[in-house]
Amino acid sequence: MAMDAILLVRVHSRKDLGEINHWRCDLLSEFEPNDFEMQGPLRVLPFDEIEYLADLNPGWWLDVGIMKTYYGKGYERGDIEYIVTIARWLENRIPGSQVWYGHDATDESMRLFNEHERESILEYYHAVGHEPYRYKRGQAEW
Questions:
Q1: Reduced to 3 states, what is the DSSP secondary structure of residue 3?
Q2: C-alpha Rg value of the chain to the nearest Å
Q3: Which of 101, 107, 115, 117 is most buried, with most CB under 10 Å away?
């Protein structure tokens, strides 16, 4: 089973739900709605779901609800260019926000996904693409 990508947005101060709804509408009109969970993107996360992050990084945490496979070093599967595009859009659209990226296998995978991190993973992707995954998969089938 594939690891799913997780994108979270940390907003430093609490926003009213109307503002969050505007961000949701803009996100769904900019990107394919089927790429997000059915309950919709930018769900406000309760503290107990992100306790491991909220203790060190207070503020509101929003789950982007992206339904894409994770991409990272050692797990070269997902569409990282699309994920980076969404992350950049979120940072530009939501003032003072930070985007965090990881996968659903462990909480410890979540990390700040700033421009430096995005450029670094894109550089890696452009160098190797999906080949490490394909190579591992090919060997496993022999």
A1: coil
A2: 16
A3: 101
Confidence (pLDDT) at 56: 65
State which residues of the chain have pLDDT below 70.
Answer: 1, 14-16, 54-58, 134-142
Residues 6+ apart with CB under 8 A from 120: none
pLDDT of res. 18: 81
Tokens representing 71 are 């991409």
pTM of the full structure:
0.87
Q: How far apart are CA 42 and CA 50, in angstroms?
A: 14
Distances (CA, A) of 27 to 14, 20, 34, 94, 110: 19, 10, 12, 11, 22
**Phi then psi for 29, rounded to 5 degrees?**
-85, -25
- DSSP 8-state code for residue 67: -
SS3 at position 130: coil
Residue 70: how many CB atoms within 10 A of its CB?
21
Report the alpha-carbon distance of residue 46 to residue 19 in Å, rounded.
18
For tokens 């089938």, the residue is 141
